[in-house]
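ENTRY TYPE: paired fold submission
RECORD: A
CONTENT: sequence, then C-alpha cells
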Amino acid sequence: MSSLLCLKGICKHFGYRKILENINFNIEPGEFVILVGNNGAGKSTLLRIISSLSKPTRGNIFFKGKNQREVFLLWLKKMGYISEETQLYGDLNSIDNLRLHGTFHEIRDLNLKIKDVLSKIDLINFSKIPIRKFSNGMKKRLMIGKLMLYQPEILILDEPYSGLDQKSIKWFKSYLYDFNKKGGTVLMVTHQFEQGVEMANRVLVLKNKKIQTNITTNGLNSEQLSSWLEE
C-alpha cells in the first residue's frame, strides 16, 4: 500500500542560496506529524512546495503513489492548507468566499453548510462584510472555516494557531482532534511544542536544510525538541 504522501529528494534553491537539500519522508494515512525548526530553516517553504504553491528546484512529491503533478486537481480537492497568507478574496464577504470554495469541492446543501460553519467560527454576524475589513484573527478563522466546509484527507498547516484568541484555539484544537480521530492526516508546522507533542504521533526536525530527526512522539517532551534545535 502506498503512503498518502511521499517526498523524494526535494531541493529548493533561490539562485545560489540553498534553502532545502534532499528532503525525504513519507506520511501514512491517519498520521499527525509536526514539523519543527528554527526561524528561517525553510519550514514554510517546504509546506508551500507540498501544497503546490511553489515548485521544487529538484525532487518529486507523490500522493497515494502517483506523482502529484499527474493528479493535481485531485490533490487540490483532497488537501486543506492554512498559512500566514490569507488565500481569501478581499473584496468578497465570508459567504461568497465560502461559496466559491464549496462550489469547487462540489459540496451538497452548500448554503446550509455555510451558515453552520459561520456559526461555528463565530463570524455569522460579520458574514456580509468584505474580507479586507477583517482583522487577521477573523481571516484566520474564515480560513479554518474553509477546511470545515468539506472533508479533506490531509491538512497542511503552517502555524495555524497564530492570530487566534483562546476560544478559537480551543475549538480548532477540538476540530483537529476529531479530524485526526476519524482518519484524517495532518502535517503541521508549529512553535508551540507542548501542544504539538500532545497531539502528534511523529515529529520531523528541519535543520541545516535537511530533515535531521524523524521520530515518534512516544516519551518525547517539548524540552527535548527545544534542545535539538539549540544544538
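RECORD: B
CONTENT: sequence, then C-alpha cells
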Amino acid sequence: IMKNLSFYCNIWQIFFTNQQYVNCGTGGDCTQNVLWRAKNLVLSASIKSVFILCGTNNLGNHPIEIANIIIFIAIHFAKKYSNRKVFLSGLLPRESANSNKRVSLEYVNHHVELFCKNNAGFHYVDMGEDWKNKDGSLREYIYSSKASYI
C-alpha cells in the first residue's frame, strides 16, 4: 500500500514538502506491530511529521478496538514528539462495497476522523475515494504491483 501511495505525489507535496521522512511500514503488520515500533522508534530531529496508515490487517477484530489502537499510536507519537505533526490516514477500501471488512473499515475511518476533528494537532487524511469507483467497487489496478501507469 505504501508503495502505491507514491503515486499520490500531491499528498506528499502538500503535507511533507522539503521534509525528511522515514517509512516504517512493513507488509503484513498489524496495529500491535506498529505500536511496538512507535514505542521503540527514535526519530531524528529532522523528521517533522508522522503519517500513520495501519489497521487493515486487523479487520478481523472489532472495529472500535482497531480505531482505538490507531488513535493510541497517534497519541503516543504526539506525546513522545510534541513538536511533530501527526497525520492519520483512513484505511483504504478493500473487498466489495457491502462486505463485512468494508463496513468495518468505514466504521474505523469514521471514528479516527472524529478523533482528529475533536483533537487539535491531529490531521485526518482520507484517500479512500480515489481507490474506489463511483459504484463502490475497487479500482483493482491501483492495488496491483503493476500500478506504475497511474
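NOTES ON RECORD B: The chain is about 40% helix and 10% strand. The CA atoms of residues 77 and 133 lie 34 Å apart.
STATUS: closed
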